[in-house]
Design brief:
Elements (H helix, E strand, L loop, with lengths): L1 E6 L9 H18 L3 E4 L14 H10 L5 E4 L2 E2 L5 H14 L6 E4 L18 H14 L6 E4 L4 E5 L13 E4 L3 H10 L2 E5 L4 H18 L8 E8 L3 H12 L16 H14 L3 H8 L4 H6 L4 E3 L1 H15 L3 E5 L7 H19 L6
Parallel strand pairs: 1-2, 1-12, 2-3, 4-5, 5-8, 8-9, 9-10, 10-11, 10-12
Antiparallel strand pairs: 6-7
Helix pairs in contact: 1-12, 2-3, 5-6, 8-9, 11-12
């Protein structure tokens, strides 16, 4: 298995953004020392109460300047918010600045609120994201200047000043549980993954199909499949639960739309959970409806809270049933104090990761 520090860079009470980023850099420096494999961030917009990272490239460069070996990147760029040529240029520059340590996640975007202020149509986000993979490969090809004429993008005779350090491009990721997208990822050699709001029991059958398609495509390597959720490690189960259980149940309030006048928290949760029913995902709807219940989270092992031994056992068990071999751990959540965050990261790196390094879930 491989391990990543993952961050929404949540807004933290009593902190300025600068202070929050300084806290983050300390976490990543420690992760680098402990031998974590990756560092990933999201791209979110227009929610000052939620996430303070609207520029994944700046995250990657800032993290790269403070680390030596971590592989770093977005999970991922919201492709439809960018001009494709501009994004291709930026990815290449970031990879060069990182000395070839970039990992590149690409996503269509999950929140319509990110699109409206840009004047973009949320319903037209999927096909540009998929097309950008081939656009990127053309942009970084041996033929320069390059041209591209597709369904969504058109570029005539553009020559990039800088190509990525990794050829043909940094490793690509695409978080998804959509069967069509997983089929696309298997064909193109893209690493997929999913978040805690999608049940592992529902994901596993889709990922078995993905693994079969990956093998049939003849790729030389095994795919990386990511799973992302909250984690907190402490000296004992009791201490870990005391510090983190209630905080974990408050961590994802930013997933909900901002409250409307007269709307209760419970109303917001019910309304948001119903959206997953409309997508044909009753399991995800159930998780969303119970995302703020610590007992539900712990009973269903949707977050990992406990001693190093407990967390290692849960990770091994759920990696097998959920078919993931890369764990994206969100260590800093809610109002968790910095000293607890750093202790959790250290215990994870020193005791949990070594216990699982040789384990291959598939």
């Amino acid at each position: 298995m491989q391990f990543a520090h993952f961050s929404h860079i949540w807004a933290k009470p009593g902190m300025t953004p600068h202070q929050r980023y300084e806290e983050l850099w300390g976490e990543l420096t420690l992760c680098d020392e402990l031998g974590f494999d990756y560092s990933f961030c999201v791209e979110h917009h227009f929610r000052p109460d939620e996430s303070w990272i609207s520029s994944p490239s700046l995250y990657a460069v800032g993290a790269g300047a403070r680390t030596k070996r971590l592989r770093i990147g977005p999970m991922g760029y919201i492709v439809p918010l960018y001009h494709p040529l501009r994004l291709a240029e930026e990815i290449a520059i970031v990879d060069q600045m990182l000395g070839g340590r970039m990992e590149c996640g690409l996503v269509p975007g999950i929140n319509a609120d990110y699109f409206r202020p840009f004047g973009l149509d949320y319903d037209l986000r999927k096909t540009p994201t998929l097309e950008f993979v081939d656009y990127l490969r053309a942009a970084y090809g041996e033929t320069q200047p390059f041209s591209w004429h597709g369904e969504n993008f058109n570029t005539d005779s553009a020559q990039l000043s800088v190509l990525p350090a990794q050829r043909p491009h940094p490793p690509l990721w695409m978080m998804s549980r959509d069967p069509r997208t997983l089929e696309f990822c298997a064909e193109k050699g893209i690493n997929p993954g999913y978040f805690l709001v999608y049940p592992r029991a529902d994901a596993a059958p889709r990922y078995r199909v993905f693994l079969d398609a990956w093998r049939k495509a003849g790729h030389a390597r095994k795919p990386n499949i990511a799973y992302c959720t909250l984690i907190y490690v402490d000296e004992s189960d009791d201490k870990a639960l005391e510090v983190a259980a209630q905080r974990a149940a408050r961590a994802y309030e930013g997933f909900l739309p901002p409250p409307q006048p007269g709307e209760t928290f419970e109303d917001r949760v019910r309304t948001h959970a119903k959206k997953f029913i409309g997508r044909g995902e009753p399991g995800a709807s159930e998780i969303m409806a119970n995302l703020f219940d610590p007992d539900y989270l712990l009973k269903n092992e949707l977050v990992y809270i406990g001693s190093p031994q407990t967390v290692a056992e849960k990770l091994r068990r759920t990696a097998e049933t959920g078919l993931f071999n890369v764990f994206l751990g969100e260590f800093n959540f809610s109002d968790l104090p910095a000293e607890d965050v750093m202790r959790s990261i250290r215990l994870f790196g020193e005791k949990v990761m070594p216990a699982l390094r040789g384990y291959e879930p598939f």
